[in-house]
């Protein structure tokens, strides 16, 4: 189904994981995007971001707003599928099946803490490389070269909403990886810098509310939600 011109995959978390696992058998770099309503709204004013999201191989609803929109449009998506949960599941599977990972993004230092934390939790996990997300064009070439040499199965990219999706799209043909996925603030959660909402909030669709209390300065960005619902209702008409 399409929401504001962006096709969203009609998949549960476990179906999305299965689809992604099939990509590991194919040579090309597949793109996984995880938009919330805020990203879909930004894409309305940013044609490049819209085009990039339209090219995603798997595009899952990271926010409850997108799931609500799908219901309003009469094609209910099965569930909210967050980038964090997908990344977490890929790491668990990677530990089991020996997949390799590269992490790109996050503040210098924070990325190192995240890698340490993940390696502590999964001592056997193949983390082949990582780099923080504040690099210039010269460093970018070196990073792309490193990714190509290391050939990670998974490349997680956390460069902030929009930037990470465009970066993946622009470099997808230059990268020797099966799956490149934009994961937003997930690195900060794995590094222990930001707390994910308790399961109660996640299950009741109120994770945004918990986040608002933790990071009140985000309220302006969250104001996108009512406008998003209005736009979706216009699409319905
Ligand atoms: N980030 C980065 N490089 C940038 C901008 C952001 O590595 O140029 C990282 C930032 O450190 C954070 C993540 O991207 O770990 C998500 O950033 P933010 O929460 O600002 O973005 P959102 O995805 O919520 O828009």
Folded structure, characterized:
This protein has 237 residues and is of the alpha/beta class. It has one domain (33-231): Rossmann fold (3-Layer(aba) Sandwich), CATH 3.40.50. Helix content is 51%, strand content 13%. The protein contains 13 helices and eight strands. The protein has helices at 13-23, 37-45, 47-54, 64-72, 83-97, 110-121, 137-150, 163-171, 186-190, 199-203, 207-214, 219-222, 224-236, and strands at residues 2-3, 6-7, 30-33, 58-59, 100-105, 126-131, 154-158, 179-182. The strands form two sheets. It has a six-stranded parallel β-sheet with strand order 4-3-8-7-5-6, sandwiched between helices. A two-stranded antiparallel sheet has the order 1-2. Helix 2 packs across helix 3 (47-54), helix 2 packs across helix 13 and helix 4 (64-72) packs parallel to helix 13 (224-236). The longest helix is centred in the middle third of the chain and has 15 residues, at 83-97. The protein binds uridine-5'-diphosphate.
Q: Report the mean per-residue pLDDT as an integer.
A: 95
Q: Tell me about the largest β-sheet.
A: 6 strands, parallel
Number of helices: 13
**pLDDT < 50 stretches:** none
The dominant shape is: globular
CATH architecture assignment name: 3-Layer(aba) Sandwich
> What is the element string, with H for helices and E for strands?
EEHEHHEHHEHEHEHEHHHHH
Instruction: Assign a percent range to the helix content.
Output: 40-55%
- Overall tally of domains: 1
- In terms of DSSP E residues, the strand content is 5-15%
Q: Strands of the largest sheet, in order across it? A: 4-3-8-7-5-6
What is the CATH third-level topology name? Rossmann fold
Distance between the termini: 16 Å
Give the oligomeric state: single chain
């Amino acid at each position: 189904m399409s929401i504001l011109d962006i096709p969203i995959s009609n998949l549960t978390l476990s179906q999305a994981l299965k689809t992604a696992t099939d990509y590991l058998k194919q040579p090309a770099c597949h793109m996984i995007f995880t938009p919330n309503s805020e990203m879909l709204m930004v894409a309305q004013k940013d044609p490049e971001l819209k085009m990039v999201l339209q090219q995603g191989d798997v595009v899952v609803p990271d926010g409850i707003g997108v799931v609500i929109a799908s219901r309003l449009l009469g094609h209910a998506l099965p569930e909210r599928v967050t980038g964090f949960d997908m990344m977490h599941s890929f790491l668990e599977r990677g530990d089991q099946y020996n997949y390799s990972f590269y992490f790109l993004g996050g503040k210098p230092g924070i990325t190192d803490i995240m890698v340490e934390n993940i390696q502590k939790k999964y001592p056997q996990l193949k983390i082949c490389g990582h780099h923080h997300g504040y690099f210039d064009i010269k460093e970018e070439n070196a990073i792309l070269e490193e990714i190509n040499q290391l050939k990670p199965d998974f490349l997680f990219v956390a460069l902030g909403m929009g930037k990470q999706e465009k970066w993946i799209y622009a470099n997808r043909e230059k990268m020797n990886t099966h799956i490149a996925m934009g994961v937003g603030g997930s690195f900060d959660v794995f590094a222990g810098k930001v707390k994910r909402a308790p399961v109660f909030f996640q299950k009741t669709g109120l994770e945004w509310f918990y986040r608002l209390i933790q990071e009140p300065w985000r309220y302006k960005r969250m104001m996108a939600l009512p406008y998003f619902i209005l736009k979706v209702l216009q699409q319905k008409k």
